[in-house]
Structures are given as structure tokens and as C-alpha cells.
Design a protein that fits this description.
disordered N terminus
Length: 218
């Protein structure tokens, strides 16, 4: 049995069931939480899964999804705008002479790159049609769906802060002194009276003493 109280024999079926659900769906999030070995008091990690955005195997900072688009028959003035948010659709047309463009969200949603999509993004000016498309994408995809007008990002970073600065209930929770080689979020996990503090595989006796690597015996 793991630390969450879930019998280990149940974890393998959970993994298989999670693989059959759509990435980022509510079922996928619930199964991710169920299969992760998190202590009961680490609610921050669970909150990150619930409100985060699934990318490359994990739930990251919520932001708008990238948008690829092109003009039908390469006619920028009258051609229908063909849009996709899935890179696989762009990759499937690699052998065809299509000129894809992209609204690329970077830096956890703080930066948007706009340009022709190829080996690298080649920047260009936007036409009025593209400006209309950009404004609609920025509002609905980024601000509404991606960030919930900032609430989703706030909840995610609230969970992230709690997860990183995790404190074990009723434990010592002392931290290494500045300059001792440790970090301010390393809280001693020992309970009761002790002379040497421990966080995972690192120990320090207190005061200005240096943090030492002292792995826990397997």
C-alpha cells in the first residue's frame, strides 16, 4: 500500500484506464490524481492537475492553445481561413505546398509570437482579416477558455506554491539557513525531538552548518 492509502495492486489498472481517456478531460484528471503517489496533505499538486493545461505528458500553467491557420488556395483576400489547434493536422500536410501561419503562445502565456510556421517562426504583418482572427482567438481561446479571465492561472499558481513549499503536518518543518547549501522550501520532515534535521535525502544539524547529502537507506 502506498502513502495515499490506495493499494498498489490497483495502480496498474488505473494507468491503463487513464491511457484510454482523452488527455485533459475530467476523467483523465481524476485518474491522474488517483494514480499519483502524493501524501494526503499535498492538495497543491492535485489542484494543479484539476486546473492545469495538459501538455507533453503533464499539467502545466494554463494558457491559450496555439492556432495554426492558412488561406484556401493561398488567397489572403477572399480565401476561406482554414484553422486547426492540433499540430498533427499541420504535419499531415507537410508534403503539400501549404503556407501555414501561427499564433504561438510562449512564456507561460505572457508572450505571443505571430508568423509563418516552418523550421522557425518568420514574423510578418497582419492583414485586417488576420487581426479579426487574432482578436477573436486571443479573447475566446486565451482569456476565456485558457485562463478563465485569470482565475484558472491564479488557482494553478496557488497550488504550485503550496506543492513546492510543502509542509508536513505536525513535523518540525525547520529550513536550512541561507548560504548553507539548502533551499527555503526544504522543510524538515521529522517529528519529535531530533538533533539533525532531514528533508528527503538531505540533512543539516542547524545553525550555520552546511547541508549534507545523506540518502535514506532503501
Amino acid at each position: 500500500m502506498n502513502r495515499t492509502g490506495t493499494p498498489t495492486r490497483f495502480r496498474r489498472p488505473l494507468v491503463h484506464l487513464r491511457q484510454r481517456t482523452r488527455d485533459g478531460s475530467l476523467a483523465h484528471r481524476i485518474l491522474t490524481i488517483a494514480q499519483e503517489r502524493r501524501p494526503w496533505y499535498d492538495w497543491g499538486a492535485r489542484l494543479m492537475v484539476l486546473v492545469g493545461q495538459f501538455r507533453t505528458g503533464s499539467y502545466d500553467t494554463p494558457r491559450g492553445r496555439d492556432l495554426w491557420y492558412r488561406f484556401e488556395a493561398e488567397n489572403e483576400h477572399r480565401g476561406r481561413i482554414i484553422k486547426t489547434r492540433t499540430y498533427a493536422n499541420v504535419r499531415a500536410t507537410r508534403e503539400q505546398d501549404f503556407s501555414w501561419r501561427i499564433f504561438d503562445v510562449q512564456d507561460d502565456g505572457h508572450t505571443v509570437k505571430v508568423g509563418h510556421y516552418g523550421g522557425q517562426i518568420t514574423h510578418f504583418g497582419l492583414s485586417r482579416r488576420e487581426m479579426k482572427l487574432f482578436r477573436r482567438w486571443d479573447f475566446w481561446e486565451c482569456r476565456v477558455r485558457g485562463e478563465w479571465f485569470g482565475l484558472r492561472r491564479w488557482l494553478y499558481h496557488l497550488g504550485l506554491h503550496h506543492h513546492v513549499d510543502l509542509r508536513k503536518p505536525f513535523a518540525c518543518n525547520a529550513t536550512p539557513k541561507r548560504g548553507s547549501g539548502g533551499y527555503s522550501h526544504w522543510h524538515c520532515e521529522l517529528r519529535g525531538r531530533h538533533e539533525v534535521h532531514r528533508f528527503r535525502n538531505y540533512t543539516w544539524p542547524g545553525g550555520t552548518a552546511r547541508v549534507e547529502y545523506d540518502p535514506i537507506p532503501a
